[in-house]
Amino acid sequence: xxxxxxxxxxxxxxxxxxxxxxxxxxxxxxxxxxxxxxxxxxxxxxxxxxxxxxxxxxxxxxxxxxxxxxxxxxxxxxxxxxxxxxxxxxxxxxxxxxxxxxxxxxxxxxxxxxxxxxxxxxxxxxxxxxxxxxxxxxxxxxxxxxxxxxxxxxxxxxxxxxxxxxxxxxxxxxxx
Amino acid sequence: xxxxxxxxxxxxxxxxxxxxxxxxxxxxxxxxxxxxxxxxxxxxxxxxxxxxxxxxxxxxxxxxxxxxxxxxxxxxxxxxxxxxxxxxxxxxxxxxxxxxxxxxxxxxxxxxxxxxxxxxxxxxxxxxxxxxxxxxxxxxxxxxxxxxxxxxxxxxxxxxxxxxxxxxxxxxxxxxxxxxxxxxxxxxxxxxxxxxxxxxxxxxxxxxxxxxxxxx
Lengths: 176, 216
Fold this sequence. Notes:
The complex is a heterodimer.
Chain A: E1 2-6, E2 10-15, E3 24-25, E4 40-41, E5 43-47, E6 57-59, H1 60-69, E7 74-78, H2 80-89, E8 95-105, E9 111-121, H3 131-148, E10 159-161
Parallel strand pairs in A: 1-10
Antiparallel strand pairs in A: 1-2, 2-3, 2-4, 5-6, 5-7, 8-9
Chain B: E1 6-13, E2 18-25, E3 37-43, H1 47-61, H2 63-72, H3 75-92, E4 98-101, E5 109-112, H4 114-140, E6 148-152, H5 159-168, E7 177-178, H6 185-204
Parallel strand pairs in B: 1-6, 6-7
Antiparallel strand pairs in B: 1-2, 2-3, 4-5
């Protein structure tokens, strides 16, 4: 059985096979920037550059470096769990209503300025991730965590992933 | 350390959230998931938010120019600087002072010491203490009814976080706290990976998880 702690910043994996007396933590990353090989930064970099056609996705510290080095053609996905939490608990705060000036064509063909009230996206600071990024991004990262774990086919039949206690509106009991 | 029996507060303080659980241990190594979880909740300001507050504190040392410089940086540069702050925070759990680099800026770097971190994190720690207190009161009626406190997760390595939690439970002796030592490698490893291990043990004890869709 594979147990995954998919964290906001770091992820770890423990495996408990038939006959084991204790879970075995998996070595997930051997990187010169890594503090602990049993922890992988929860980061995925998707690269569409022609130079990277053989390796589209990078993970962990390698993903961070690749995302920072390539100034374009990359989608650096990090802190994805935080976005899940916010999008499921907090109401959206990235839309604001404001008046904009638009041009409307009248019957004579002339363009007249009019004021329209529109809901527009407001990006305060970093551009936030969208579900179309972090949902498949999370699946890809979880798949990589399983791939990097030294597990038998039997273990892969049972995978458990932790869910933050804050999910479900600060409930009084754990999910069952 | 094995807890014989008593009400136990578990604080898993990670990068994104603090997960708070109050559980009752009736006898060593045994508890009923359905009966002995007395309460749980979450707090949304984890290590990433702490890093952001520390970053703001660093920039405030450089005045208006530093703040303006940071805001003008591209996203990738801001992310790199945030990463430098995170590294500095980790180092500061072991060292007396650390330097945070601001590459390509006119002020180059700034020095951080424990009082800086305390100052930067004070508002978060106040809100965290309020949320934990609220959860404990709802679960067991009084702070004094907590017998043990266990901390895990990367943010629990921070001295500011540990001191804030110690201050909340003044009725407990040091032996009733299970806190990771950032200078002990095995402590760091076990606190970073405790959730994965715990999940595996729960599952082997017959805990039925929520079904999730198959990973494509």
